[in-house]
Amino acid sequence: MAYDKFTILTSSAVPMPIENVDTDQIIPARFLKATQRKGFGDNLFRDWRYNGDDTPKKDFVLNNNIYSGKILVAGKNFGSGSSREHAAWAIYDYGFRCVVSSFFADIFKNNSLNVGILPVQVSAVFLDKIFSAIEADPNAQLEINLPEQTITILATGEKESFDINGYKKHNMINGYDDIDYLQSMKDDIRAFVSTSQY
Amino acid sequence: MSNNPSTLFDKVWDAHVVRKIDDGPDVFFIDRHFIHEVTSPVAFLGLETRGLTVMFPEKTFATADHNTPTINQHLPVQDPLSAKQLKALETNTAKYGISHWGLGNPKNGIVHVVGPENGITLPGMTIVCGDSHTSTHGAFGAIAFGIGTSEVEMVLSSQCIMQPKPRKMRINVNGKLGKAVLPKDVVLYIISKLTAAGATGYFVEYAGEVFENMSMEGRMTVCNMSIEMGARGGMIAPDETTFNYIKGREKAPKGEAWDKALAYWKTLKTDEGAQFDIEYNYDAADIEPMITFGTNPGMGIGISHHIPVSQEAGSGKASYEKSLNYMGFHEDDAMLGKKVDYVFIGSCTNGRIEDFRAFASIVKGRKKADHVTAWVVPGSHIVEQQIKDEGILDILTEAGFQLRQPGCSACLAMNDDKIPAGKYAVSTSNRNFEGRQGPGARTMLASPLVAAAAAVTGVVTDPRTLL
């Protein structure tokens, strides 16, 4: 499924200073019953966001309208647990294009890149600076520059670089995905299979 | 063959790289692909949208497990959304000629139980599935890990995925395990030491006497939970225990093919002097029956211990307090004696015959506590049959337990097996995340022996006192 190209994103951000946010929180299993990729954003963080009677929980950050933007900023070890890509779909469908954390779980990071969400890993110190900037001004703007691989807190000018491999970076900037690449390799794959053990 | 000493992981990984991309991932070939009803429909939809087909249908195996009821499986599935997903799996597999063990098929069961028990999982393979507990298959010396739905589509359409090679970790556990200490306790102990993120970015090899002496069922339990410390997967070098388990299984090699395979499998071990990026050593004697008290699998302690205060816990104070608040527990609480409302034995972690044997060893001659609701769920029909054949069903029935039908069940509570809000469950599954077993459910992860002890006493109980 094609996704929007990603170059430079300037946006306010939604702060979630919680560690070990697992994919069961991002999208609980009971919402995985769809056979199409539609509407997952409505159930993003469902049980943190809504009471049992579907009324919004006032103290949850997504229900606080002073915060908005295309960037989610979360505590360390974001996206642990289940491999469900539905977690990345829910984040994308809600409107986020970038998640910033000091540490990501592996499968979530892969899934994000595959659906067009940029995972930006920063130092714990820089993460704290971002949280402080948002605390000082809920509308604080962050600039994510993918070609330069930098994240900047615009109000203070504080900046940090982040890692992404060249292949994935090229894909994100151009809106390509791995399936396009693999389809171009079918002859190599057939040749490989003819020599494989299983 | 190179003379440089290499690890088991390197041997298997390097044999599956179709192309290395500069400053990018490896194009990685997949020998076996398992699919189930929840993470595959959108991948099949993707194939159609792009006009692609399945490149090697004989390398993919489907089973229905996540969404299936564990009672009355002969009746139509009542939840219309679940029924639609199950139907989609049936239709998609039929369309592309993929093997499908749907509901009611005698081979049906949890994907990570049926793969090994039918000889689909073999040493040296690369195995993926849209499920993070695919790491289970590493018990056979395979590289096995969970993938997302985009990657399921990649495997269907090209039999490859794009993967950066993880770093290498070895975890050695030597010595002799104490009374009532099971493989589940070993892995919960390791995760409690390394934390829920401690192995992120790594692929683990488990080594040492404890794993050498472990059954295949036990090794599967350990490898299964590798993901719970963030590792992509975990593996154990194949040995006689592995070969004996595989021999004679339906899809295992036979005759000459067996001899040839066996010769290859015997090369699958880490060479003396091979380097790991990081290594940990633990002593089996330090491990006691474990239980978790928080909302990630790293929050586990020996069952006789008290809940740590936040300064000792190694995570931020706010997150730690949030976790204890959710559980309704406090710092320094004893775990022994805490009331238990539900007990769940089953899942891809502890849904194999050995787990039910352990459970039965404690419930035999005792009765289920009146206030406890127990869900006893075999991992497959084959396990279900073993439970009957070995007389375990009689023991369970006598003690007031009912045997349900196979499936993932209360491990992730996609079907009706949900723990109600606020209730406490001792569960042999793999995750104690908030709401994992139902909205508001409070999960304590433990071994089948600890689960049995809780089921008959109604409180958290040290199984050593009942054996």
What descriptive keywords fit this protein?
heterodimer; A: 198 residues; alpha/beta; four-stranded antiparallel sheet; four-stranded parallel sheet; 8 helices; 32% helix; 16% strand; B: 467 residues; Aconitase, domain 3; 2 domains; five-stranded parallel sheet; 17 helices; 18 strands; IPMI_Swivel (chain A); leucine biosynthesis (chain A); EC 4.2.1.33 (chain A); lyase (chain A); branched-chain amino acid biosynthesis (chain A)
What does this entry look like structurally?
The complex is a heterodimer of chains A (198) and B (467). Chain A is α/β, with parallel strands linked by helices and 198 residues long. Chain A has helices at residues 23-26, 46-49, 86-94, 106-115, 124-136, 166-174, 178-183, 186-193, and strands spanning 8-11, 13-16, 71-74, 98-101, 118-121, 142-145, 150-153, 158-161. Chain A contains eight helices and eight strands. In chain A, the strands form two sheets. Chain A has a four-stranded antiparallel beta sheet, with helices on one face. Chain A has a four-stranded parallel beta sheet with strand order 2-3-4-5. In chain A, helix 4 (106-115) links the parallel strand 4 (98-101) and strand 5 (118-121). The radius of gyration of chain A is 18 Å and the shape is globular. Chain B folds into two domains: 9-288, 2-Layer Sandwich (Aconitase, domain 3), CATH 3.30.499; 290-465, Aconitase, domain 3 (2-Layer Sandwich), CATH 3.30.499.10. Chain B has 17 helices and 18 strands. A five-stranded parallel beta sheet of chain B has the order 5-4-3-6-7, with helices on both faces. In chain B, strands 11-10-9-12 form a four-stranded parallel beta sheet. In chain B, strands 16-15-17-18 form a four-stranded parallel beta sheet, with helices on one face. In chain B, a hairpin with a 5-residue loop joins strand 1 and strand 2. In chain B, helix 2 crosses helix 5, helix 6 (183-194) packs parallel to helix 8 and helix 14 packs parallel to helix 17. Chains A and B meet through helix 4, helix 6, helix 7 and helix 8 of A and helix 2, helix 3, helix 5, strand 8 and helix 12 of B. Chain B: Its cofactor is [4Fe-4S] cluster.
